[in-house]
Amino acid sequence: MRVVHVASEVAPFAQSGGLADVVSGLPAAQAETHGLEVGVIVPLYRGVASRLADAGVVLDPGGPLALQVGVHSIKASLRIARVGRVRYGFVDCAALYDRPGNLYGPGGAGEWHDNHVRFGALGAAALAGAPALLGGSLDVLHCHDWQAGPAAIYARLATKPPAIVATIHNLAYRGIFPKTVMDELGLPWSTFNQHGIEFYDQVSFLKGALAAADAVTTVSPSYAQEILTPQYGEALDGFLRWDVKRLLGIVNGIDTRSWDPKTDPALPASFSRDDFANRATCRSALAQEHGLPLGDDEPLIGAIARMTGQKGLDLVAELAPELEKIGARMVVLGAGEHELETRFTYLAEKFSQHVAVRIGFDVSLARRIYGGSDLFVMPSRFEPCGLGQLYAMRYGSIPIVHAVGGLRDTVTDGSTGIQFHAPTVPALRAAIVRAVALFRDRARFTKLRRAALSRDSSWLASALEYVQLYRSLRV
Questions:
Q1: How many CA atoms within 13 Å lie on the side-chain side of 277?
Q2: 242: how many CB neighbours lie within 10 A of its CB?
Q3: Does residue 110 surpass a pLDDT of 80?
Q4: pLDDT number for residue 402
């Protein structure tokens, strides 16, 4: 079976969030464990070629792709590299992808004005280049989030389309553009309706992909149910209930070889499930790195997230002045909304003995926080899956989570972590107080930590679920 994953990013070569980790880990597990011929097609952004070279990955010169994306004639090439058993196809088009700033815009919250063309071209390139990438006709096209939506939409228009799977990583991001892009991208107006790509008289790339797909997946079973409700459905709950052919939730995994406290070079000391005595060294080093005095009975809390309302870091900010009374210290890493960044910077200055903050995205520091914190807080208002809690458990940091979406599915209250049931300051405070009490009960906390370290968060089971889905679509 030949499968191509289409996405806007892939770790560690082009990444802005957890999507990139999934697009790296899932295809690798499918190829290595289940013997599929698997490819990944992503844009060749600025800097990707040098990161590939630094990783010792050979990127070929590429074969030409002459793409006709509606009114746009685009010259590109598909440059192929191999990482393990997975073939990567990087779409090389300097006019669209060789730009400064982040992957989707010049910086901040801005987006490139031609993102519809950039990702329309990605979709066209995926369909044109997949046979060369995998050496034969495509069996399954797996599209991730709205940026890969055009690939699904164009594939459905083909005479003999492959099986199409669309995965929703976060329904809040729907890829919405004015309806003028229909003609610009060569999309038939017959699809512009409530059952297709139309979204309140605009175009939604994600909705178009969901309408085109043979099956739609989300990244956790609970989120698959939640998005069928008005509260979490982002104005698509009715469409998801009535128009999507098949919807199921498959929880994300992580790359347990890359994320391994026994071998992680970012940690000052290594440890494992069977012997985590050295974890105390990681805890002390993290506190010292951030200038936090830390007593033996004071837990160190980690928080790593985008600073947005979804992630609930405003609740964490509300509680920061109370940390001294609660008896804990905290390290926060993240970036996002300017107001939250400013607020956390102020808190770090005002309560410097209890709160340390780093604004930005730093993978090495993130690993040190996972490996050195005692508790890890994730008060997300909604969470399709979340990877932070999986990394935290893998590194022995006990997650404190709002019981929603994938957080509810992956963290077992009292066994591998702590759940609370409302995204409010009082509920979060009660959960942290409970966690601090657990931390001070060394026997119970050691048992909790060992259970968290023992949890299997690998891609093995989830990759099999996807393979079984693919096979059912090919019958």
A1: 1
A2: 9
A3: no
A4: 98
Same domain? For 168 and 284 the reply is no
Domain count, the chain: 2
Residue 206 lies in a domain: yes
For helices 18-34 and 460-474, angle between their N-to-C axes, nearest 10 degrees: 70
pLDDT, average across residues 177-201: 97
Inter-residue contact 216 to 166 (CB < 8 Å): yes
Same domain, 363 and 400: yes
Establish if 264 belongs to a structural domain.
Answer: no
Same domain, 431 and 465: no
Range of the domain at 223: 2-253+460-474
Q: How many helices (H) and strands (E) does the chain have?
A: 19, 18
Coil/strand/helix, residue 173: coil
pLDDT band (50, 70, 90) for residue 16 = confident
The Cα–Cα gap between 281 and 232 comes to 42
340, β-bridge pairs? none
Q: What is the 3-state secondary structure (H, E, C) of 179-205?
A: CCHHHHCCCCHHHCCCCCCEECCEEEH
Residue 265 lies in a domain: no
Residues in the chain: 475
Kindly list the distances between the CA atom of residue 135 and the CA atoms of 3, 57, 88, 130, in Å, as whole numbers in the listed order.
11, 20, 13, 8
What is the value of pTM for the model shown?
0.94
CATH of the domain at 88: 3.40.50.2000
Task: Estimate to the nearest angstrom the gap between the alpha carbon of 295 and the chain centroid.
Answer: 35
The sheet with strand 418-420 has its strands ordered as 355-359, 329-334, 300-304, 375-378, 398-402, 418-420
